[in-house]
Amino acid sequence: MPYRKTFRRSFHPLACLLLSASCLGLIPAAQAQKRATPAQTAHQLNMQVNDDRMTLSVARVPQIYLYGPIDPDAPRRFESLMRSGRIKSGSDVYLNSPGGSVEAGMALGRLFRQGSIVTHLGVPRLPRQTSASYFNRSAICESACAYAYLGGVYRWAVSGTDRIGFPTYPAQQTPADVTAYLKEMGIDLDALTASSTGPAPTGPAQDPTLWPNGEQMIAKGLANNGRQDLIATYKYLQGAPYLELKQQDRNGEHKISFLCKPGGAELTTYDTIGAVRARGIVTREQHSYFELNQKETLPEDRGGVSVVDESVVMQRVYPLNQLQQLASAQAMGAWVRDRQGIRYGFAFEVTGVKKVLNDFYSACTQATQQHS
Question: pTM for this structure?
Fold first, then answer.
């Protein structure tokens, strides 16, 4: 099951302040939407592109708002913006649509996947002339929109009063084109069959639409909150038990490995975030540590990390007499702190890979006992 992200990278306080100001409307909308697509109609999907300097300095990628009915021509217009460079790979797309053409919704989803788009629910920023007293700030994404949402490489679950509705069909009766699309997007068809939905929490019991909350979206694999599944591998490397935990999220790839040896398990962590960012973090590093169950472990002051290609790399020797803690761990991570106290790194939950952790612990314990 995908892990809901609770460990976040640290941002500069000024960036957070700017983001809050933008979200709260304290920054003039005309400035925030300097390059937004102006045309808006009630009969087609409107596309607002926020790629101004303020947005890019905070979010690092354009913020795209798609709202209104999904018309048959919507995929062509979106693809045109991609080709022009206005919508870049990895952009955030916020959806607010009552539905429309299912075929067009799936075509948008395929474009999202092609462009490594991150999907959310959300409404456009307030126009200057609009009164907040009657402007609906809740987003809804239903039917064709929900299919488009599933195209996101990273998909954020609903929160607050936002709602997403997925069409459901009796078992074995899902249209062939929808079945093919869900398979292409890596979505379990059983998650959207009528027999798996139960009564809708906010609608009639026979509602043919599934309205999941955030937790249900995560559990069904409909959302992943910015990260792919954790991959755990246990094998023998150089004749010794080896454990690797790897996870991809929108910031990069993160890996923790243990190689069992008589003097202690060789612990290596990789935070693959790009050469420029990695060098910047290592240059500012004052303190680094491995993290186990959100507690600082194996700390080391300046000089405890290095840059290898595009990764911040940490190497430690993990004591054999503490290996059992790994087998019962809930979360692991690796962090670097600079002199301002800002930390950079990653962490992931490991409760879903308990068997692999226990297999490694048992094999390593047996191997070291044989060498003692």
Answer: 0.75
